[in-house]
Each structure stands twice: as structure tokens, then as C-alpha cells.
UniProtKB/TrEMBL annotation, chain A:
Its main location: membrane. This is ABC transporter permease. It is found in: Cell membrane. It is a multi-pass membrane protein. Belongs to the binding-protein-dependent transport system permease family. CysTW subfamily.
Automatic annotation (TrEMBL), chain B:
NCBIfam families: TAT_signal_seq. The lineage of its organism: Bacteria, Pseudomonadati, Pseudomonadota, Alphaproteobacteria, Hyphomicrobiales. It holds the Pfam family TAT_signal. The keyword Transcription regulation does not apply. GO terms for biological process: polyamine transport; thiamine transport. PROSITE patterns: TAT (PS51318). One of its GO terms (cellular component) is outer membrane-bounded periplasmic space. Residues 1-21 form the signal peptide. This is ABC transporter substrate-binding protein. One of its GO terms (molecular function) is polyamine binding. Keywords: Periplasm, Signal. The keyword Signal applies. Transmembrane segments: none annotated.
Length: 314, 368, 381
């Protein structure tokens, strides 16, 4: 008897009981509906998002009357006209777009060697260190990190103090466009590394050895073998970094010194500073459109990368 | 608007006791008898407030004594003012009971709500008989809002950066040595009107012709100023990032309390004066509306104002308040007619109707 | 008959043929573990050498050192007489076919084959013709435009071979490329390797754990175990004259009977005692012969044992034992009998019958007699 009991451990008994309960709640004949049941929460969330978008679209067509602070009952495209003609919004949109492109390019360049080393190193200790260094910023959060840069790069910050030691007068290192780009790159790096790493892991190390034995030095191996095969990772990482940068709020707000607004900051202003939800909704829709067009363009030009639907072919 | 929080260190136990004692007397003599037929008391009323010492001052000066007097608990909702606004608007539009009883708000923001018609009229508060003109929202019918104190957007500066004496004019900030060393609010609030004067324009032309203001702000843009919100100014002064700023005196005073050498002036062109106030959203049950009004009425007593505004370091709306020691005769704490002569006050109605445009205009210049 | 084992390398050996690869006293340590110990051999030009051993024997490490992916901890490797320890892989003239082929999935078959030519900056105008020629060599003419994933496993093998050979390397290395194939395809590709190697005459080193493959394809076999070279010999010698018990056991099916050495003669005859039984055999390893009175074991191949129901039928054989059939395994081309012999403590002897149709069949439990010739039993200490 005792032998039988050890042969059928407690864990299995608990699983049996749970399966029994599950079968009572959700009988086997419902099984064909199970995948749909699993899908339900996601569908609900997406549905809510769509509802929100519809509301935003509705709001974007109504104009604010500042004598009553009520929105018009009838629809007009006045908000869209304002958004497309007022120089402020064009400046802000252009700044966001250019920043997103620069940040994406720079982040990918920096993320690649990091991801490559993390995936390929033979030292488990180095890999662990790189992983921790990568994840630590995630726990710290974007806003705190941005304030950290204020402390480090400020007039009386560590960098300026160090410069002072070699006789350089304090410099304004923050509250400008490069500071925003710097903050964004630093923020995006872990995302890019995490998107690149699986793509690099999927490249058999043997391929690089093969390229070497076939006469390619490491530069040519990188260009002809690693880079083309890592493309799905680059596309996935690029799309994530591009959209996150384009829509970022906190970094331009904190590191920009107020004069480096991105589209998201302009939207916040409309919603919460001037109470013009109509114009805010318009800008939000245009941001969604801009982001979608960019992502669509990337997918059209380079394919969907690691974000591809369906099974990849060997 | 994000608020920096002055400390309550100067709010001594003695002044507090004085205030509550006086209140007790006042309620015993007047209030209780005048409201013999009181409606049913709610268990609590909810007041939206700014956090930290702002809410501490309000609690010490108004809420605690109100609870003592009426037995009604006061809960402080610390949702940001600009974020509660859409919620209240939505509740009124849908005929729901609003999420708060009283909103402590900037007069400009409150006026938007008044124009939208979501505020209760407060004209029948008994204590309005004793207040100065400041309590009345300019350009609005009746009392949809009651202003409770004023504040000044001063020119705050580091004396070390002005060896030849304090700046006399906003134009002094155009000196090239201040390039990158100035700060304004990121929507330019507080600076539009003095800029109109400094640019050679007239205040009467607001809002019709503000070109002088935009010209002056365009010149100021070449100085590459920092743009921020209330807490930023204190931080920037403390970290030595800026030499001068157009900001509410409270922020400069906060940096001074933290040991930074900061002075402030009202330049010859003047400085913008504005107010904060209290208001009640529409849609409350009758009895709750009654007690919310009693709360605001109580906030207008001299005793409540004295304790509350000592905490904030700002001038109140009842006569005879004693200014904090460090602010006696200070331009940011106007008390006399002469003091007010030097300040610029534009009606809230004009402000809210044009604010959006001014903000965009300022942003377009600064972001360009 | 057997080649003398040489530790040193000479420029001229094997009837004057030039030496392509010399491995001299090469060792490799990983964290204090000796993956390869003091390995030495010469490989003349144009020959096909197989390094055969179980997993963990150090055969792949040795190959990777020759390819240049690892640097020996000690010793030196010479290719065409030049020491190559300091030469990176891409500067060695070595074509390699990898275990998992390592074909570039983002390129077509032709692009894969063209890759080494491009990397070696060969004249671009000659590349297409050359690629086509090598695809034809591996019987893939016309398949150049296919993507790698559109090719069958065997076709992929052929692309990998063409890619490794197209730039006419001095040396071809095969790192167990056939291990993952099914048996039929594997045997087909083994012959294909041999054909191509003979056609081009390229010096080749192949690594495998498959003794059959080693016997089929190689001119020479190096058997490795636990980082050490056990034997280097031609396939037939490796099979017939294994140098030690490991080689005898690893290649083919061999029965071992342990005993005590009773006598050793000048001519190489040995007899060992096992209980009441005396077994006659030959010295297996002349370098390390068994000593009288010492322990030794006799090794006899399963196919060299005859089986009969009657001892009289085995009268011509030197050694006859009685036993009982305990299992019969039909493998198609042969029948395998497992026979327990009382004389050696019921130890099991395996016997092959390669022509079951012509011989009497035995059932489990039947009493049988086994017999073999003394010259077929090799005695190792």
C-alpha cells in the first residue's frame, strides 16, 4: 500500500482534484469553446480600446466654445485644420518624428553589441551581469530615471563637478534636444536588447564558424551572415523603439526643460491645460495615424520581423 | 497646476490655539443660532485640495475647525485640479452626483467651470458681507466661485547674479549674460501681461491686440529660457540652474526657506496678480449642498483665513489679517491700495476665453 | 601488415607522398580536463582520414583545432608543413562541412556555394560558372536557385559539400555531417563523399562515431578514446588487428573471455586459462604483449564463431565450447545468437550466422556447440 502511495504522489492527486473541479464547471462537451473563452479577456480589452477610439474620434470633430466651455453639437473638421496648419503642432510633430528616427537608429546600434555579447558569451557570470544591468532600469521606471539624469547632468551634477576639477566651467547638459534624445536612447535600450536577443539566439553559432572557415573575417561575417539573419530582431526592436519614442511624454517633459515638447505633451496640454478635449482628441488621432503609417511602412519595406504572424519557415 | 508645498514650521501651536479658540467663540455666539433649522448633516464632505503642506494648511485652518464646529468629518481628495475638472464636468453633464463637494481651484480653472455652468451660486454666504473685493471673481455674474486669497507672479532672482542691485524692469532679463539662465511657466502664464507692457503695449488692448507681448516674448526666446511648472522653479533655484524667473512668490519663498539666497520684486511694468478660490459643483443633494456652503462660509472667517494663509504665505480676502513676519511690506503680499496699483489684474472671463490661444501662441514662440 | 605508429612527422612518408597535415603532440585542456592528450599523426596528401570514437573521446575537439576554432593547449598542428596555431580560421585553406551543415538560410543554394569565393575575392566573372560546376559535381545541377529550406536533407548535404570544396581548399573537414540522417540516406551519402573525394583528390579528415561509416569511407582510421589516439591504421587493419581491447570492442561485435596467461611463445601464440578451460590465441598488441601468469582477455569476433548442434561438426576448429541458446535476434542479413556457456561461468557469447538460410536454425533453450580457430582470437592484457 505504501509503495502505491509513493508511486502516486500528492501533487498528482491535487491535479486530479483540480481537473475534477474544472470538469464540473466546464464539462468536456464545452471543450470546443475553450479557446474562445481564453480569448475573451483580450477581446474585451481590445473592444474597450476600440470604443475609446470611437469616442476620441467623436470628440475630435467637436470644437470648444470658450465662452461657455461646452463642445459644439455639430461636427466640423476645424480641429483637424488647426492641427495641420498651426506652426506649433507642425514643429512638435516634426520634432517627435525626427527624434523617434534618431533614437531608433542609435538605440539599435548600441543594443546590438550588448545583445550579441549577452547571447554569445561563454561566461555565465557575464551573462547574468548583463541581464541584471538590463533589467534594473525596468524596476526604476522612466520618470525616476529621467530625474536621475537631472541630478547627474545638472549644473551642480556629478558630470559638471568632474569637469570643474579639470577647469571646465559648468555647462548646460540638460534641458535641450540632445538631452531628450540621450534620455530616450537610455530608456529604450533594454527594450531593444530584449527584442534583439531572441533573434540572435536563433542564429546558430555554427553559421558564424562556417562563415569564418569559408574565408570571412568577423566584419564580413557580421555584414553577410549575422546582420541579415538578425533582421527580424532589428525590425521588432525598431518598431517598438520607434513607436515608444514617438509617443513618449515623460522624457521630453523632464529632460527638455519645457521647450522640447513632443506630440504627447501637446496632447496633455490640450486635455488638461486648455481643457480643449476636441483638439486634444484630434492630436491623439493624428498621433495614432502617424504611428500606424510608420509601422505599416516598416512592415511593407522589411516584413514584420519577430512580430510576424504565422509560423516562420526554417 | 502642480503645487509645491510650503512647510508648516511657522504655524505655531500658539496661533493655532488662538484661531480655534476664537472660532469656538464665534460659533457659540453667532452661527448656531442663525441656522436653527439645519438640514440633515452628511457623515462627511469631500474637499479637493493640493497635497502636502497645502492640504495641511487647509486642514489646520479650515477643515479641523469646521469638523469641531459641526461634527461633520472632512475628507481631502488629492486628485490634481486639472484632472478632477473633466470628471466633474462629466458628472454634471450626466446628472450624476459629483465626486467632490468642494473644489479648491485656481480662479482661472474655476471660471471655466463657472462658464460651463457646473458651479453652484454662492452669493448667499453670510460671510461675504465681510470680505474685500478680491473675493469676487472679476467678470462673472454673482459668486459662482469665491476667491479666498491672491498671489503674485513676481520676478524672482538670485542677488548674486544682480551685483548692481535688484532688477527694475522685465527688460533687464534681456541682458545676454542671462542666456539659458531664465525660467518661465511652460505656457507662459503670469508673463503674458507684463510682457504686453514691457513690449510697449497697453493692458486695455488685452485681448484685442497683444502683438507687443508676443514681440517681447519673441525677444525673450533668444535668451533660451527654461520652461516649467511650480516645483521646477524651486528646484532650479536650489540647483543653481537659473538666475531669474517669473513665478509665483510661494515657489521662490520655498527655495529661500531651504537656504538659497533668493529675492523677488515687482518690476516697473507690474506683475500679474491672480487668485485661487473655492466652488461647489452642481448636482449635490440639498442637505450636502447646504453643508458644503457652510464650509466655504467658514473658510471666509478671519480666524480660519489667518491659520490657513500663514501656511501658504499669501494675502487673504478678509481685512485685518496679520501677515507672516518675513512678508511684511513684501510686494508679493499686497495689502494696501498702493500695493495693488503696481499689480496687473485681468478678469478671469477674458483670461479663460483667450487662455488657450495665448498658451498656443507662447508655446509656438518658445517651441519654434 | 600494420603501419608502425609514429609520434613524429616526416616530410616524406608513405612511399614518398607529401604530408598534408601533421598533428604533433597536441593537447587540449578545458578547465583542467584533458579533452585531447598528446595526439600525433601524419596525413599524406589526397588521403581520406576518419577520426572515430565515442562521444567525449576528443575527436571533435581535435577537428576544431585543425580547423582553427580552438587553439591547442600544447603541441602544434602543421598544414602543408606550416605551423598554423596562430592562423585564424578564415586564413586557413580549409573547407568544412558542419554537423548541422551551417548553410546560410537567407541565401539560395548557389549563393551559399558562391559565398567562399566572394569572401576570398575571386574574380566575380568566373564565380557563376564555378558554382554551377560544383553544384553539378554534387549532382545538384539546376538547383542553384532554390532556397535552402526548399531542399531535402540529402540535397542540403550536397550543397554543404559543394560550398566546402568550391574554393579548392587544401583540406576538407567533415564534422559528423551525416549523423542526423536516416540510415539509407546516410549510407548513400557515405559513398557520395568517397566518390567526390576520389574525384577531386582533396585531403579529407572526417569525424564520426559510426564505425561502419569509418570503415566504408576512409583510407585511414584514427580511433580515439578518452582524449587519446588508440590506433591509426587502414580500415581493414583496424578491423582485423585492433591494437587494444577498446578498439576491438568499439569496432565490430567482439566477445571477450578473461583468464590468466599460461604461456607466450616467440611466434606470438598465447594460451590463457579460464577455470578448467585452456584457450589458444595470438598476441593482439605486440608493443604491449601479455605476460605469463598475468591477467589477459581473449577477443573473438561474433562472425568468427561457428555454431553446431553436434560437437563433431566443429572438430576442425581449435576451440569448442558447449552452451545453451538464450536469445535469437533476426537482423535480416544475419541471425544473432546469444549463447550462455557453462565452461566460462555462463557468460554470454554472441555469434553471427551470416547465411541463416543455408544453416540449421536453433531455438531458445537448445543445447549447442560453439567453435573457432586459435588464430582468430586476439589476446590483450
Amino acid at each position: 500500500m505504501r509503495a502505491a502511495r509513493t508511486a502516486y504522489p500528492l501533487k498528482w492527486r491535487i491535479m486530479d482534484a483540480l481537473e475534477g473541479i474544472a470538469a464540473a464547471i466546464w464539462p468536456a462537451r464545452f471543450r470546443r469553446a475553450t479557446p474562445y473563452l481564453m480569448l475573451l479577456p483580450a477581446v474585451l480589452l481590445v473592444g474597450l480600446l476600440v470604443l475609446g477610439l470611437i469616442q476620441i474620434a467623436d470628440a475630435s470633430l467637436r470644437t470648444l466654445d470658450t465662452t461657455t466651455f461646452q463642445f459644439s453639437d455639430d461636427y466640423s473638421i476645424a480641429n483637424f485644420r488647426r492641427a495641420l496648419t498651426e506652426p506649433l503642432f507642425l514643429v512638435v510633430a516634426q520634432r517627435s518624428l525626427v527624434a523617434a528616427l534618431i533614437v531608433t537608429a542609435v538605440t539599435l546600434v548600441f543594443a546590438f553589441p550588448y545583445a550579441y555579447l549577452m547571447v554569445r558569451t561563454r561566461s555565465p557570470r557575464l551573462r547574468k551581469f548583463l541581464l541584471i544591468a538590463l533589467f534594473l532600469p525596468f524596476f526604476i521606471g522612466q520618470v525616476v530615471r529621467a530625474y536621475g539624469w537631472l541630478i547627474i547632468l545638472g549644473n551642480q551634477g556629478m558630470v559638471n563637478e568632474a569637469l570643474g576639477l579639470i577647469g571646465v566651467a559648468p555647462m548646460r547638459l540638460i534641458y535641450n534636444y540632445p538631452a531628450v534624445l540621450f534620455g530616450l536612447v537610455q530608456y529604450m535600450l533594454p527594450f531593444a536588447v530584449l527584442m534583439l536577443a531572441p533573434a540572435l539566439t536563433a542564429i546558430p553559432e555554427e553559421l558564424e564558424a562556417a562563415a569564418g572557415s569559408l574565408g570571412a573575417n568577423w566584419v564580413r561575417t557580421f555584414i553577410h551572415v549575422v546582420l541579415p539573419l538578425a533582421r527580424p530582431g532589428f525590425i521588432g526592436a525598431g518598431v517598438v523603439v520607434l513607436t515608444l519614442s514617438l509617443t513618449d511624454f515623460a522624457v521630453p517633459a523632464i529632460l527638455g526643460g519645457g521647450s522640447q515638447d513632443f506630440i504627447a505633451n501637446a496632447i496633455y496640454d490640450q486635455f488638461f491645460r486648455t481643457s480643449d478635449q476636441g483638439l486634444g482628441a484630434t492630436l491623439a488621432l493624428m498621433l495614432v495615424a502617424l504611428g500606424s503609417i510608420l509601422v505599416g511602412l516598416v512592415f511593407a519595406l522589411f516584413g514584420a520581423g519577430t512580430l510576424a504572424m504565422g509560423r516562420s519557415r526554417a | 497646476m502642480k503645487r509645491f508645498k510650503p512647510t508648516l514650521s511657522h504655524l505655531s501651536r500658539r496661533t493655532f490655539l488662538q484661531a480655534t479658540a476664537a472660532l469656538g467663540g464665534a460659533s457659540a455666539l453667532g452661527l448656531r443660532s442663525s441656522y436653527a433649522q439645519e438640514p440633515e448633516k452628511p457623515a462627511e464632505i469631500i474637499v479637493r485640495a493640493w497635497g502636502g503642506s497645502w492640504v495641511d494648511s487647509l486642514k489646520a485652518g479650515v477643515s479641523d475647525s469646521f469638523t469641531k464646529m459641526t461634527g461633520i468629518a472632512v475628507r481631502h481628495d488629492l486628485t490634481e485640479d486639472n484632472e478632477i475638472q473633466p470628471k466633474v464636468w462629466a458628472a454634471v453633464a450626466q446628472n450624476r452626483v459629483p465626486p467632490i463637494h468642494i473644489n479648491w481651484d485656481t480662479t482661472t480653472n474655476a471660471t471655466k467651470s463657472a462658464l460651463r455652468g457646473v458651479t453652484e451660486d454662492l452669493s448667499d454666504l453670510p460671510n461675504l458681507a465681510n470680505v474685500t473685493d478680491l473675493a469676487k471673481p472679476a467678470g462673472l455674474e454673482g459668486f459662482p466661485i469665491v476667491n479666498t486669497y491672491g498671489y503674485v507672479y513676481v520676478l524672482a532672482y538670485r542677488p548674486a547674479a544682480f551685483p548692481d542691485g535688484p532688477p527694475k524692469s522685465w527688460k533687464d532679463l534681456l541682458d545676454p549674460k542671462f542666456k539659458g539662465r531664465l525660467a518661465f511657466y511652460n505656457d507662459g502664464i503670469g508673463f503674458h501681461f507684463p510682457a504686453q507692457v514691457a513690449g510697449g503695449g497697453k493692458l486695455e488692448d488685452i485681448p484685442g491686440n497683444m502683438q507687443p507681448a508676443w514681440d517681447f516674448i519673441t525677444k525673450m526666446k533668444t535668451q533660451q529660457p527654461l520652461l516649467g511648472e511650480d516645483p521646477d522653479f524651486t528646484t532650479w533655484f536650489q540647483n543653481g540652474e537659473i538666475d531669474a524667473a517669473c513665478t509665483i512668490s510661494t515657489n521662490a519663498r520655498e527655495a529661500r526657506k531651504n537656504g538659497v539666497k533668493i529675492e523677488w520684486v515687482v518690476p516697473e511694468e507690474g506683475a500679474k496678480f491672480d487668485t485661487d478660490g473655492l466652488w461647489i459643483p452642481k448636482g449635490l443633494p440639498e442637505n450636502e449642498l447646504y453643508w458644503a456652503k457652510q464650509y466655504i462660509n467658514h473658510a471666509l472667517t478671519k480666524e480660519a483665513q489667518q491659520v490657513w494663509l500663514d501656511g501658504l504665505g499669501l494675502p487673504g480676502v478678509v481685512p485685518g489679517l496679520t501677515p507672516p513676519k518675513d512678508l511684511v511690506g513684501d510686494p508679493s503680499y499686497p495689502t494696501t491700495e498702493a500695493d495693488f496699483q503696481r499689480l496687473i489684474r485681468i478678469s478671469s472671463k477674458i483670461q479663460v476665453e483667450n487662455e488657450s490661444e495665448w498658451f498656443s501662441k507662447f508655446k509656438a514662440i518658445m517651441q519654434g | 601488415m600494420q603501419e608502425p605508429f609514429r609520434a613524429g612527422a616526416s616530410r616524406e612518408a608513405e612511399g614518398g607522398r607529401e604530408i598534408a597535415v601533421t598533428v604533433r603532440n597536441v593537447g587540449m585542456d578545458f578547465d583542467g580536463i584533458h579533452a585531447v592528450k598528446n595526439a600525433s599523426f601524419d596525413l599524406p596528401k589526397g588521403r581520406f582520414l576518419t577520426i572515430l570514437g565515442p562521444s567525449g573521446s576528443g575527436k571533435t575537439t581535435l577537428l576544431r583545432m585543425i580547423a582553427g576554432f580552438q587553439t591547442p593547449s600544447s603541441g602544434e598542428i602543421f598544414i602543408n608543413g606550416e605551423a598554423v596555431s596562430a592562423v585564424p580560421p578564415h586564413k586557413r585553406s580549409i573547407g568544412m562541412v558542419f554537423q548541422r551543415l551551417a548553410l546560410f538560410p537567407h541565401m539560395t543554394a548557389a549563393e551559399n556555394v558562391a559565398f567562399p569565393l566572394k569572401m576570398r575575392r575571386r574574380d566575380a566573372r568566373t564565380i557563376p560558372e564555378r558554382v554551377e560546376r560544383y553544384l553539378a559535381l554534387v549532382r545538384l545541377g539546376g538547383y542553384g536557385g532554390r532556397r535552402i529550406h526548399e531542399l531535402s536533407g540529402g540535397q542540403q548535404q550536397r550543397v554543404a559539400i559543394a560550398r566546402a570544396l568550391v574554393f579548392e581548399p587544401d583540406l576538407l573537414l567533415l564534422d559528423e555531417p551525416l549523423a542526423a540522417l536516416d540510415r539509407k540516406l546516410r549510407e548513400e551519402m557515405q559513398l557520395e563523399f568517397r566518390r567526390i573525394q576520389r574525384e577531386l583528390g582533396v585531403t579529407t579528415i572526417n569525424v564520426t562515431h559510426d564505425q561502419r561509416e569509418a570503415l566504408v569511407v576512409s583510407d585511414d582510421i584514427v580511433v580515439m578514446d578518452q582524449g587519446e589516439i588508440q590506433q591509426k591504421a587502414r580500415p581493414i587493419h583496424t578491423y582485423r588487428q585492433p591494437r587494444n581491447a577498446f578498439v576491438a570492442n568499439f569496432i565490430g561485435v567482439t566477445n571477450f573471455i578473461a583468464g590468466t596467461v599460461r604461456s607466450v611463445s616467440e611466434g606470438g601464440d598465447v594460451s590463457i586459462l579460464r577455470g578448467a578451460l585452456t584457450l589458444a590465441g595470438k598476441i593482439g598488441d605486440p608493443v604491449n604483449p601479455p605476460a605469463e601468469g598475468g591477467k589477459a582477455s581473449g577477443a573473438i569476433r561474433a562472425e568468427q564463431i561457428r555454431l553446431a548442434g553436434d560437437a563433431a561438426q566443429l572438430s576442425k576448429l581449435d576451440c569448442v565450447l558447449a552452451g545453451t541458446v538464450i536469445d535469437t535476434i533476426f537482423e535480416g542479413e544475419r541471425m544473432v545468437y546469444e549463447v550462455a556457456c557453462a565452461a566460462i561461468g555462463d557468460e554470454v557469447i554472441r555469434v553471427f550466422d551470416h547465411d541463416p538460410a543455408a544453416h540449421k536454425q536453433f531455438d531458445i533453450g537448445e543445447s549447442v556447440f560453439l567453435g573457432w580457430n586459435a588464430r582468430d582470437m586476439l589476446v590483450f592484457r
